[in-house]
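Exercise 4. Each item below gives a protein and its sequence. For each, produce the structure-token representation.

Item: Beta-ketoacyl-acyl-carrier-protein synthase II (human gut metagenome).
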Amino acid sequence: EKGVSGAAPITHFDAEKFKTKFACEVKNYDWTQHFDRKEVRKYDLFTQYALIAATQAVEDSGLDLEKEDLEQIGVIWSSGIGGLKTFFDECLGYAAGDGTPRFSPFFIPRMIADIAAGYISIKYGFMGPNYCTVSACASSNHGLIDSFNAIRFGVADVMVAGGSEAAVNEPSVGGFNSMQALSTRNDDPVHASRPFDKDRDGFVIGEGAGALILE
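Answer:
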């Protein structure tokens, strides 16, 4: 909003031993402003971001849902990796145990990338097309294209299109570091994201969500 880079030292975990020690995290996020404790147990962070962004988009659109045909409103929500943090935490819990399979019943629903689209539709009662596009960094672009085509071909009248990511965590940063894909400009993180620059040394990982209403 103010043209200031969001890149800063990682706070979600101790990144001291990682090659990349910074990311674009959502600052000052407080889930209690959006969900109750019972709800939030069901949601990975990427789904929380998705629900918040989709809600803002629906409210901002001015759609009168009481007058809309909910069967003609769909959701295509995108995520490159879904609930990676949930997956990681469950695996750590299992590895620390005695081999007895004690997994949360929310494990799979929290983890899968298409769950966000489902929860958005459940919240509003949308019954149109509902799925997730997963194609790495192009995921949300593909979701927008599919949403446009859903309207173009008469499959839906209105589409909620967006994407969310919450992968500032150990396996994500560590994995991309192993690929030499992330910037390691730890001494100057605010200038690390520089696509097409001759001095670019990788991308800057971030988190967040965005949503559009197409009609």
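Check: The domain at 7-214 is CATH 3.40.47.10 (Peroxisomal Thiolase; Chain A, domain 1).
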